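Hi U.,

Before I forget, here's the chain from the pilot set. I'm dumping it here mostly so it's searchable later in email.
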Amino acid sequence: MYGIADLDNCYVSCERVFRPDLKDKPVVVLSNNDGCVVARSNEAKKMGIKAGTPYFQLAEQFPNQKIVVFSSNYELYGELTSRVVSLISKEAPAYFRYSIDECFVYLDGMEHLDLKAWGEELHKKIKRSVGMPVSIGLAPNKTFAKMASHFAKKYQGYHHCCMIDTDEKRVKALKLYPIDEVWGIGRRYAAKLEALGVKTAYDFAEHNQTWVKATFNNIVIERTWRELNGEDCVPNEEMAKKKSICTSRSFNGMITDIDGLRTHVSNYAARCAEKLRQQGTVASIVGVFLNTNAFREDLPQYWNFQEMRLLTPSCSTVTIVKAANEVLQKLYRQGYHYKKAGVIVMGIGPNSPIQQDLFDTNAEQFEKMKRLDAVIDRINKVNGTETIVLGSQQYTQKDGKGKANVFANAIKHDFKSKNPTTRWSDIIILK
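Structure:
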């Protein structure tokens, strides 16, 4: 038996933890790059606010309506969601964090318990301890667990926990579930299925396996079909395995000079390196891509991607940032207005043992970098993200004067909330 805990309107719920006055009020969270809506409270959804709506359009579309607006505060969201995962880890035999707002649990050995009651109690504990609502889905496989969490979120009668444990419930859930919502299908395949007359998960499950193989020739789609027919076939270890890590962002405006691009790329590369270390892995390939603005048809267009193979797989910030900037140098072309850039690290494997390249004689330096990164990670964890950064990650002032900014302060965050969980300066004082 599997379960999944899915935080409701995660970013908005995080903001409400320290702002109880926002209960029942329309709240939206904006992206820090282009100022578009990335999260909405239920009240904002009922008003008709769509995901992706630019901030400046909110006043135009909803005049005379009070909408509370926040910039994304990932320090806060990461800290609070980690507390939720910590609680889940104490209540389940095993767990796997799938995303910032989702966590799978493995309930082997708990079949003798009333799992529906267990899920409802877990919701109460998380709400009481962290202050965030969570929807819990329980089922014999991961696909149905995801489906059950959707119903738990949508229908109040489930009391925040839905369990699909009989064939009757399975068929009913399949008939109610749109094909574009099914975990593992994706937007492109959903469009193809809908064109073929497949509107619900039930329609898809009713096709035979031969048709699925012939139509898609895709192991993930076939596996999803098998799960919808009651099999348990998504391997646990495969879920945890990431073939690549990508960090990318659209710029606030457009950039023409390589120096501006270099700072962004350095920050994206540093973020990829941090993620590698967090999951105990290294990468052997560093790639960079550049995009112009496709919506500006009056400007010349350019898109390109290149990669570099490292002599020795690494998770060192210095190594990966250096490689990313070398790739950027090859990619960059003058005369273009760039709107987006990104860094992708690939060829991911465990960080120990690492096979040194025969021609890489700098093994001692490798160990030094490993120790340096460990110290910096520890300092940044205690004192706040980006307490220590590389010089190439800093954004200089437009006039060339004044103190340089780190990434967190240079990005667009006009409505950013405080971080009482991670910054001493933001501690809330009760009067």
